[in-house]
Amino acid sequence: METPAGGIPGTHRSLVERMMGAALLDVSVYEEVEADVTATGQAAAVVAIVAVCGALGHILQHSAKGPLLAVVTAFLGWIIMSGLTWFIGTRLFKGTADWGELLRTLGFAQSPGVIAILGIIPILGHLVLAVVAIWQLVTAIVAIRQALDFDTTKAVLTALISWVICWVVILCMMFFVFGTALALGAVTH
């Protein structure tokens, strides 16, 4: 059994230790949170922390809608992406995982996003946000690979297909909402 960073064999790392390990692509962290059914709450905390950091980091680039909206949006994205990834990874690529394992690993894969708070720095902000996005893509691929117990190629394909489907669904929802708003506006005038 591997010894967690600064820990005793058989014990669990703290939230911060897990976040740091996940950000640094420590496979043992992904294996630990995959197996720890009590870590779903911690994964949710990571999603919330990262969402707030991202909202604060975007304040100068955009008119921030606020940390609360960022957290709600982040949770919806996390849940939808985890579900899509589970379905595609298990059905199309024959990976072995349950939805909870993907919730936990993909939640922790968002850990590099805490650095998005540095997006508030003028000029440097856009570069920081780009680096964070790439870093999170890499951590997500590692999370998918570990949770679904298959190779990196299948993890990349699963991530890509899930991402495309997620965006198609989001765009369809936006068109539906926009179309409905236009139709209602036309009917009431």
Counted beta strands: 0
Report the radius of gyration as a whole number of Å. Answer: 18 Å
Count of DSSP helices?
7
- Structural class of the secondary elements? mainly alpha
Note the beta-strand portion. under 5%
Q: Which sequence of SSEs, written as H and E, runs from N to C?
A: HHHHHHH
Q: The biggest beta sheet, please?
A: none
Count of the domains: 1
Shape descriptor reads: globular
Q: State the share of residues found in helices, binned by percent.
A: over 70%
The quaternary organization reads as single chain
Mean pLDDT score, rounded?
87
The span between the termini is: 69 Å
Low-confidence stretches: 1-9
Which features does this protein show?
189 residues, mainly alpha, 0% strand
Structure, briefly:
The chain is mainly alpha-helical and 189 residues long.
Description:
This protein has one domain (15-188). It has seven helices and no strands. It starts with 14 loop residues before the first helix and ends with a helix. Helix content is 70%, strand content 0%. It is globular. Helix 4 crosses helix 5 and helix 5 runs antiparallel to helix 6. Mean pLDDT is 87; it is low at 1-9. The chain has 189 residues and is mainly alpha-helical. The longest helix is centred in the last third of the chain and has 37 residues, at 152-188.
Topology:
Blueprint: H1 15-23, H2 27-35, H3 40-57, H4 67-91, H5 99-109, H6 125-148, H7 152-188
Helix pairs in contact: 2-5, 2-6, 3-4, 3-5, 4-5, 4-7, 5-6, 6-7
